[in-house]
Design goal:
Elements: H1 5-26, E1 30-32, E2 39-41, H2 59-66, E3 71-74, E4 81-82, E5 97-100, E6 104-113, E7 126-132, E8 138-143, E9 156-164, E10 169-176
Parallel strand pairs: 8-10
Antiparallel strand pairs: 1-2, 3-4, 3-5, 6-7, 6-9, 7-8, 9-10
Length: 178
């Protein structure tokens, strides 16, 4: 069951309290990773960011996610494809057109994330990968993983839209093709 916002805040609060206790005990801004035991430097300045980014030229991308589609842009003049989408071509400055990414791609690279930023502590360990698609784009996204050894370079993947909880927004993921 997904955590709600108050549960996430409590998890972060308890994590930070444990770090502060360790700092008081040792006098050092060093804590041990719970899984590996490796030392981690704890920055003493808290950085919480929330920001608004203008996306006027990219509205179609987000509307596509709400419809269950992942869109990219392609320049009609020079043929360059963009993901994430660009409203204008950075090579020839032509206005790009919207296309749908469909079909399967190939996983080029991946990494497992064990040590997460504080804002991602409420997620289990996850996998991030880069896949190449026939439309000429490479996509960086979380990879749906069922276990420790189910992902490999060269495997076939498809893009899917999912609603990320508890944040409650649409995003895209790479899903292994069986």
């Amino acid at each position: 069951m997904p955590m709600d916002r108050s549960q996430i805040e409590e998890l972060i609060k308890s994590y930070l309290a444990a770090i502060e206790e360790e700092k008081r005990r040792t006098g050092l801004p060093i804590v041990r990773d719970e899984k590996t035991g490796d030392p981690l430097y704890f920055d003493q300045r808290e950085l919480r960011l929330r920001y608004l980014v203008p996306v006027k030229g990219l509205t179609q991308f987000f509307e596509g996610l709400a419809r269950g589609e992942i869109l990219y842009t392609k320049c009609p003049s020079c043929g360059t494809s963009y993901f994430p989408p660009h409203p204008t071509c950075s090579k020839c400055v032509a206005e790009t057109r919207w296309e749908r990414i469909s079909g399967e791609g190939e996983l080029l690279s991946f990494t497992r994330i064990y040590v997460k930023p504080t804002s991602f502590l409420h997620y289990d360990d996850y996998v991030v990968g880069v896949a190449s698609f026939p439309e000429g784009v490479k996509v960086l996204a979380w990879v749906k993983s069922g276990g420790a050894s189910d992902i490999r370079v060269g495997m076939r993947v498809r893009l899917e839209v999912e609603r990320r909880e508890p944040e409650n927004y649409y995003t895209y993921i790479l899903v292994p093709v069986e």
